[in-house]
Design a protein that fits this description.
single chain; 299 residues; alpha/beta; ten-stranded mixed sheet; 10 strands; 20% strand
């Protein structure tokens, strides 16, 4: 069992704020500014111009349409730039066939430590047809992604102060990589650190026959994650829930009034297996339905 390190502060020198100029991006901007101020970060603001299906329908009109797209994007970027006034920042307008190919290059070139973005939270058929840009980013990125979903209330950034950080873990390797971020952010804010593990609902005694954890064992493993000296700067609160993982993580976040949920997630290269499809549904549901931001860290 790996114990969280209590004395290692995460460094966020360079933050990438990804915007599509939508309401969800507008709602995400204050979170990017407050994090940047807290960590003394440089903010790279990126918008990727992805041509619509109509852009190349007519060769005569393509140039006109592209110019119009550029003009609109420049005007929008000026409004975004005003939101980052007073912070070291760089505005970036790039054109590409998709968001990720451009984003991956920008991340590497600028050695970014964190991505901040909003998401529309597409579900059902709309998600199947259009996909989720947010999910592609947090499944592919090798840096943590701070996502503000459509259920997050305006003003929830609370001036950048986190009063409670919730770390959800299934005790697997993908969760372990997220743990240092949870503990560092809790330490940085002198906040409560809630740790939750979700057990499946089953009849009494069944978990023993199936080789699963008991409540007592799960609580013990959660407690072992926290170093003894953590009590000097936060109040660790281990809890065990029963039921569907996503629903129970969201419930736990409401119960402890979490300002941030921290999750470890698997990458796109692992999404074929049935077990990973379950992980995929759980992580996306938490990101979309959480009433506070969610920090995902790819394992």
């Amino acid at each position: 069992m790996t114990t969280l390190q209590a004395n290692k502060r995460i460094a966020l020198k360079n933050i990438l704020f990804l915007t599509d100029f939508s309401d969800s991006s507008v709602a995400a901007a204050p979170f990017a500014t407050t994090i940047a101020r807290a960590y003394g970060s440089i903010v790279y603001v990126l918008h990727v111009l992805v041509p619509s299906a109509y852009t190349y329908m007519s060769p005569e009109m393509s140039r006109v349409l592209l110019d119009e797209e550029d003009d609109r994007a420049k005007a929008e970027m000026q409004r975004v730039e005003a939101q980052f006034s007073g912070l070291p920042s760089e505005m970036m307008l790039e054109r590409g066939v998709g968001v990720w190919p451009v984003l991956s290059g920008v991340l590497e070139q600028n050695e970014c430590d964190l991505i901040v973005m909003g998401t529309h939270g597409r579900t059902g058929l709309q998600k199947v047809l259009l996909g989720s840009a947010a999910e592609e980013v947090f499944r592919r990125a090798h840096v943590p992604v701070f996502t503000i979903g459509p259920s997050v209330k305006r003003g929830a950034h609370s001036g950048g102060k986190l009063r409670c950080v919730l770390f959800a873990t299934d005790f697997k390797a993908s969760s372990a990589v997220a743990a240092p971020y949870a503990v560092s952010l809790a330490q940085e804010n002198q906040s409560r650190l809630a740790l939750v593990h979700v057990l499946p609902k089953c009849k009494p005694g069944k978990q023993d026959r199936d080789g699963g954890l008991s409540v007592a064992e799960a609580l013990h493993r959660l407690q072992e994650l926290v170093p003894p000296e953590a009590e000097l700067w936060c109040r660790p609160e281990p809890m065990v829930q029963h039921g569907a993982p996503a629903e129970q993580i969201l419930l736990a976040a409401q119960q402890c009034e979490a300002d941030l949920i921290v999750l470890g997630v698997r990458g796109m290269d692992h999404l074929a297996a049935a077990a990973v499809r379950v992980d995929r549904a759980n992580a996306y549901k938490v990101v979309v339905e959480a009433q506070c931001p969610v920090l995902t860290v790819r394992g």
